[in-house]
Amino acid sequence: MGSVFFDIGKVSIYRGFLFDVLVFDDWYVGLSIRPINKIISNVSLFEYFDFDENRIKALKNVILGRTVYLDKLSDRGKVRDVVFTDDEEYDRVFNSILKDDERRGIPILKILRKSKEIYRFADEVRIAFTMRDVHIDPAFKLIFKELKKEPHEVLKQAKGYISEISPLKINDFEIEFSREPMEVFLDER
Amino acid sequence: MIRTFITRDGSVAVVVDREEVRKISASGEASNLGMIIRELRQKFNESGFTRIKQIDKPDKVILILEGSSGDDLGEIEVLVDLLEHRFRQMVFGTTMHAVTVFKSHSPFPESKIVAYRLRNGKEHATDKNVIYSLLNKASNAFYKEYGLLFVKVKGFKIATTESDVIELPEKISIVVDDKELEFEREAMELTQDSDRRQFIKEAVARTIRMKMVDGGYVIVGQNALIHGKRVF
Prior knowledge:
The complex is a heterodimer of chains A (189) and B (232). Chain A has 189 residues and is an alpha+beta fold. Helices cover 26% and strands 32% of the residues of chain A. Chain A has helices at 45-48, 53-58, 60-63, 90-97, 133-136, 140-147, 151-165, and strands at 11-23, 28-41, 67-69, 76-83, 108-113, 116-121, 126-129, 168-170, 173-175. The radius of gyration of chain A is 21 Å and the shape is elongated. With 232 residues, chain B is α+β, with helices and mostly antiparallel strands. Chain B has two domains: 2-92, Gyrase A, domain 2 (2-Layer Sandwich), CATH 3.30.1360; 113-227, no CATH class. Chain B contains six helices and twelve strands. In chain B, strands 7-8-6-10-9 form a five-stranded antiparallel sheet. Chain B is globular and about 55 Å long. Chains A and B meet through strand 1, strand 2, helix 7 and strand 8 of A and helix 3, strand 5, helix 6, strand 11 and strand 12 of B.
């Protein structure tokens, strides 16, 4: 730990928000908004680790349990296991997903996606990073420092998102939200 | 009082500190703690985290959200924050600080609800999650067909608000994932406040997701969206 495992030059930052819908006793609707950032490699996991199976092997514990993105940002899963080329089961897994021998030599990830386990080559997924990576790689501190926002900046971002959301058209109705947040949190059930 | 962390296997866990709850509860720690755990479980269930392992320790209660990942951490923190605020408000009559909640200018309109019950769901799936997934896909298909927002409600139904303009048939057959689903219209009244509340929450959340996706956002969690264009 402490040595540089990751390459922050190979990551992309995406911005967005989390929301929660509240319904008050008087049937007014509240929207709780919290800005978020997603840090995802902009190259495949295999390329991220320089196409080096041994590096992936050395970092297996760091990779297990991590979120990976498949073809699209909306398509993600969690790494359950890594099947390396010298593992006994590699051939069986390889043949079950692809018979094109050109791909032989690329580690295969077992991924939990939508409650199902699937296999993908390490060059078919992108890897996601979280705050805990600061403990693994201090270089990530730079990114998180950059992303850290003061409360007034968070509020400004949240206001930006509410401007995009509001008004909301639901069938024959339209709901407009205040552009200023509530100062006091009211009882919500 | 309530904090989150990532377990060794990568799942998100939530810890409720018994001592903190006791300190601010004065009396009734046990009932307050029970309420907090119940509410947390309910919130997590609503957000799709249905497999929750509970570990009771003398000084804390740990809830491990099996199947979650570090990516879900932010979403879970929002749920936890909101609950903690509500609890503190209940105890102190005030909150520690304001949360970023934007309120609507008017209440959600009174409206009649039209529901369709899935008649042949069990022919295609026995797993509840698979049926829910089919209902979600059917809601999308109904939207495309009729231009009305449908959301799933309890009892293997999907529901929408009655429209003055669009007339809906009594029966609808629709093919989803190569499965022919048959729906039958049912009169439905959301007599229970909790049912109406759930309908509104689902309808608003679904509309937000659809609107933001049209605007270039990508859904990365039940209520999490990021813009598809990277910042850097």
